[in-house]
Task: structure prediction
Amino acid sequence: MVTVDTLVVGGTGQIGRWLLPELTRRGRSVAAVVRDGAAREAELRGWVADHGGVPELLVVLTGDLERPGLGLTAADDQRLLAIRDVYNVGGLFAFGLPLDRALGVNLAGTLDLAGWAAGRPDLRRFVHVSGYRVGRTPTPGAGDGRAEAFDPLAEATIRQLAGRRGAYEASKIAADVALRAHAGRTGLPLTIVNPAGVLGDSRTGETVQRIGLGDLVHELWIGRLTALAGSPRTFVPIIAADVLAAFLAELVEHEETLGRAYWALDPDTPPLPELIAEVAGTIGVRPPRRVLPVGVVRRLPRALTHAEPESLSFVSEDRYPVEPYQEFARRAGLPEPAATEVIRRWSIHLVATGFGTHPAATGSAFVDIAGSRTLVSGELHRPRAVLLHGLPLDGESWRATAELLGGRCLVADLPGLGRSSPTGGTLEEWVVALLDRLDPAARPVLVGHSLGAALAVHAAASRPDRVAGVVLVAPYFLQRRPPWILRAPGRLPALLVGRATGPALAERAGAPTDPVPASYESAAANLNRRGTTRRVMATLRRISEPGARRQLAVLLDELTVPVRLVVGDRDPLVRPTTRQVRVISGAGHDAHVSHPQVVAETARRLLGERASRAAGAELDA
Result:
């Protein structure tokens, strides 16, 4: 049994998630107290292992910040008797909370935890993580880093704060003041950390939290953020999750940090309008055109602004006493990543994961291709296979196929039709530019679905020396035309498609709906973005023209590279072809989603043929 020396309350949140692997990597034996500990243990251990920690040094216990003594069993309480350090990174974080609920967790729960920790005979430090706006008011001073004590706030004062700044922030301010007072009376070895908005990992952008700036980026992504609240000087500071975790883990090892308060933030964070412009440029959308004073935004209807009223209290030009944090971080040799890089990687991760609805594909990035900020994942230099999606899907639809192919695949979202921005040229020009970007020696197999199949044919015809073969999944130009209603002029088709949900798209494709594959949830989210549905419908009408379909069929027959077709028997070919066709029983139009193993096997065979031809050429030479 692991002898525990550190307790982390809130290990499943954004900060706790990075703190657990950081502490265990340093050899600390850690107990994470979470609700339903038995159910969460395997997942948390897996997280620690995946993020470079030591899962054998992690113990997961069931507890609750709202219950006295964390609600621990007698056995678990005894197991934690010898802990040295307690990290309170838990709490209730949401806008629109009832005040009594917020106070019950963030104030009463914090004080109860402090009292419980004080009863540990070997306690070295109690680290309380608050917030960068919390420490400013009503606890003046602290510019020298001292966690000065003040009298607890009166109930009337707390309720006034809640009226102005919301229940969450009022409860955190009250907890900050009350905890300082408690430490002053009892001698609790307290250190307070007031972190900025915690973004993703500085190296990968990975995050498990969207609330706050992430919500702002989501509004930007879907095209609803046309104006910002504040001024050109509004300062919403950030810090990377792994940087904050390293700081938290290090500070308990230094006696000088006892009794101090630290504002942990990157002072080089650009002003909010510049930060959002950086995000917009990274993910290929337009930045907001205007900055409106907070007072104006408060008076506008929420249905128009989409702004959470409580979030507006974070819109300020204030700066913070960051020097003590910076000095300590430099002396401790902690990482200091550039703020703009943290912002870029975090924003890419948000988009690549559908803002937390599914895992990010390996190597997700935005690259410039033919005027489009194109979302790609996988191997961008020398891929063995390039995977191109159809309508209305995106690159997420290839996840299972790419995994079955065993890596070195390049998945790209089509410009303006998935998560990539539109291109100034044609889709055909874009796909050739994508192919030209690769190492000429790569010679990948192109695997295309529906519209992607047409682009694969065009690329192979344009650059036959750069392609080893093509696999066409449900090539639309050899199949039935879409229903008339989807090809009709006017706005009705776009209205119908734009309101589609993930389950509706899956049902229409004959795919499972319990659960709905992430492919369709991601596609539905894309259709909700401004302009995407219009572009999808315009493309659908264009590719439905009989002349264009005939030209693609001729181009297919003329290809000089190996070709394989894969179709479902529920969506058969209606135009004859001389190419080899594999029919999947029970599959519809999206055979790569329903039967990825068949598509991957077909691609592997072409790759195997390429390897055999290359070996034969070497023998002939």
Observations:
- Residues 596-620 form the longest helix (25 residues).
- The chain has 24 helices and 19 strands.
- The CA atoms of residues 358 and 518 lie 7 Å apart.
